[in-house]
């Protein structure tokens, strides 16, 4: 701040002459000075509050030289102890639990795991909700801890990798379409029942169908007909005795009427086990018309 000051001096002639003198006043005065002090005081208060908040956050979050509280940073990645809540998506290459505890992922709504390719497109997804679990992917594979394929499913079908598929439900298994399997076997000391309540039951095999009961009986029951058909080969009933208890028996008439008009036959069995029919007579005609 510069102020001019005029002084009077006397020259040689004795007359008074004004002399200009410049006085320089450096500083801030008045209300500007008070505002500056208030601003500096405000900055000092903000600095103290920020420093106190920083100390409080460090103590609350448990910051230390190894990480933050239960979250530790090491060469292998991050290690988190205890329970934690994630409010936003979590991106990680691998998530492992401790050796002596299980990994639990809990959510009040659902838990979704997505796998993406290099373009960011979702190639596989698993969603576990409160009422159902859904999986999305090109194929689904379950392996054992010995790297054995237990179950595999894709768009073409599903396969059980292990040699045995066991159904433990009391009602068994329900199939709406055909089933292809080399062996159907019941659990030890349990009965095996193949049933079709409203449709037909068919068993086909290119090299034959083998039905065997090691202990117990084999019962085949149908509402209409039971057909045992072999396109090329024999039909073998391997048992000590084969009984047809409800087979109707014909009565041969010897007088008054010809037997041929009744078209009666009898079932004969060869020593080899082959069945054949013979026209019925007064007595058995199996020995007369053997076709063994």
Describe the SSE topology.
Blueprint: E1 2-10, E2 16-24, H1 31-60, E3 67-68, E4 71-74, E5 77-80, E6 111-116, E7 122-128, E8 133-136, E9 139-143, E10 149-154, E11 157-160, E12 265-269, E13 275-279
Antiparallel strand pairs: 1-2, 3-4, 4-5, 6-7, 7-8, 9-10, 10-11, 12-13
How would you characterize the overall build of this protein?
- By secondary structure, the chain is α+β, with helices and mostly antiparallel strands.
- The protein is 10% helix and 24% strand.
- The chain has one helix and 13 strands, in the order E-E-H-E-E-E-E-E-E-E-E-E-E-E.
- It has one helix at 31-60; strands at 2-10, 16-24, 67-68, 71-74, 77-80, 111-116, 122-128, 133-136, 139-143, 149-154, 157-160, 265-269, 275-279.
- It has a three-stranded antiparallel β-sheet, with no helix packed on it.
- A hairpin with a 2-residue loop joins strand 4 and strand 5.
- The radius of gyration is 50 Å and the shape is rod-shaped.
Short description:
Helices cover 10% and strands 24% of the residues.
Low-confidence stretches: none
Strand order of the largest sheet: 3-4-5
Q: From N to C, what is the helix and strand string?
A: EEHEEEEEEEEEEE
- DSSP strand tally: 13
How far apart the termini lie comes to: 142 Å
Task: Describe the global form.
Answer: rod-shaped
Report the total helices: 1
User: In which range does the helix fraction lie?
Assistant: 10-25%
By helix and strand content, what is the structural category?
A: alpha+beta
């Amino acid at each position: 701040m510069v102020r001019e000051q005029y002084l009077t001096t006397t020259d040689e002639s004795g007359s008074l002459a004004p002399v200009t003198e410049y006085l320089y006043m450096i500083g801030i005065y008045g209300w500007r000075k008070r505002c500056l002090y208030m601003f500096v005081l405000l900055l000092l208060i903000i600095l103290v509050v920020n420093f106190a908040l920083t100390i409080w956050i460090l103590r609350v979050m448990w910051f230390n030289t190894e990480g933050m509280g239960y979250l530790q940073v090491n060469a292998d990645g991050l290690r988190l102890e205890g329970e934690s809540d994630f409010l936003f998506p979590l991106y990680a290459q691998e998530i492992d639990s401790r050796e002596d505890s299980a990994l639990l992922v809990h959510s009040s709504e659902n838990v979704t795991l997505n796998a993406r390719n290099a373009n960011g497109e979702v190639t596989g997804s698993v969603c576990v909700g409160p009422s159902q679990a859904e999986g999305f992917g090109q194929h689904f594979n379950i392996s054992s801890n010995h790297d054995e394929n237990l179950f595999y499913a894709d768009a073409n079908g599903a396969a059980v990798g292990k040699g045995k598929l066991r159904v433990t439900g009391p009602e068994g298994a329900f199939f709406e379409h055909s089933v292809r399997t080399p062996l159907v076997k019941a659990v030890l000391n349990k009965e095996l029942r193949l049933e079709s309540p409203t449709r037909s039951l068919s068993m086909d095999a290119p090299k034959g169908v083998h039905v065997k009961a090691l202990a117990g009986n084999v019962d085949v029951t149908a509402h209409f007909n039971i057909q045992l058909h072999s396109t090329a080969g024999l039909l073998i009933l391997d048992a000590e005795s084969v009984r047809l208890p409800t087979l109707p028996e014909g009565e041969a008439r010897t007088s008054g009427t010809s037997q041929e008009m009744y078209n009666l036959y009898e079932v004969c069995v060869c020593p080899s086990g082959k069945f054949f029919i013979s026209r019925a007579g007064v007595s058995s005609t199996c020995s007369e018309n053997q076709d063994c």
